[in-house]
Structure prediction request, 391 residues.
Amino acid sequence: MPLILITGLPTSGKSTRASQLYDYLTERIASDPSTSSKFRLHLISDQTLSISRSVYDLDPAHTPAHVRSANASEKDARAALYGAVKRVLSPRDIVILDTLNYIKGWRYQLYCEAKNVQTPFGLVQVGCPVTRARGVNEARIRRQEQQQQSTQPSTTDTGATIPTAAAAGAAPKSGDLHPETYQQSHQNWQQKQFEESTTEPDSEEVQLSPTDVQEPYLPRSNWENLVFRYEEPNPMTRWDSPLFILTWNDTPEEARKVFDQIWDEVVVNKPQKLIRANKSTVQRDKDPGGDYLYVLEKETQDIVKRILEQQAEVGEGGTVRLGRSGNGDQEVLEVELPGKKVGLPQLQRYRRAFVGLNRGGIGLEAVGTLAAGRLRESFVGYLNDAFEKEM
Ligand code: ADP
Ligand code: MG
Prediction:
């Protein structure tokens, strides 16, 4: 059963929505006798695997000595999450993965995992203004400081407070300095004031829920870097779709509507996706009609041209739609582009290889020939296979 990823900025309300979705699915499964014995539900998160926020901190200066490097710690965390998903994902298990899921390539990897076990996949993005998400982190930092102060009243500053204008020092007094030195240091002081006032991040005052026990992201640069590194989902790509969006302000009723959609589209009804043409599914026609080699060249050239045209629109990893025959046919073929841009030389290489395979030659048993529609279908299948190996 499906793998549902939750994604969003750090401290944007992902776990809140993930647990609401978990409760919704629990209830929904229990209320339907046809599903209650069939489905098992799992919620996997950084918290359930005891992954600390510090694994995401890229600054080696903040990495504890026993960790190889800041980046390695995140890789280990991802391996743990991946392993946990892989262990349970099956046609009977619904898995909600509540972690940042902020890297496009990582989401792709999980999408492939779902595809491997032939189970549906969906992505839920939790939308939240950056200033509010930052406010949540600030509130958690304040709470942690208060807790530390109450347990160790005499400890010194944790180093976690926001640099304030006061920390930049007082303005130099003109009488203390030589006029030129004064001017210079006054400029420096103004510059410093300016930098600190513009770089001091803006955050909203946020009320943490009374049950909130999560640790903050510290140092603050860890949180800021994650926001900076966040790779927005692109619903045009197959590994970011179907994409469901929830925002902080969505009411329980609104959220429920989205959960209903997830149930319908991802859990029970497998989305009716067009079955992709594959090389092996295409049969050869005995009677091609017209000059076969000419048709082979013409149709494959046409497909290359259309892919290049549409790629600009749908972007990397998008789906290009083509008519099964060049002349306004209703049937549609889909080419799923790889995660990086494909250029003309690469497409021409594939085209030539395909033409080579299909023109019939020495050593090939009596190849039949393909009519234009079958040819196009076959070339699209060939490209899909080639692109799939590429991402
Ligand atoms: P994340 O998992 O993204 O770090 P959480 O779900 O843990 O974020 O939420 C962080 C804090 O914000 C929690 O204290 C939670 O109660 C609060 N919060 C999250 N979403 C909402 C919301 N939609 N409305 C009100 N408070 C929320
Ligand atoms: Mg969380």
The longest strand covers residues 121-127. The pocket of adenosine-5'-diphosphate (ligand 1) is lined by residues 8, 11-16, 136, 208-209, 212, 214, 248 (CB under 6 Å). Confidence is low (pLDDT under 50) at residues 157-169, 271-289, 361-369. Residues 25 and 41 are 8 Å apart (CA to CA).
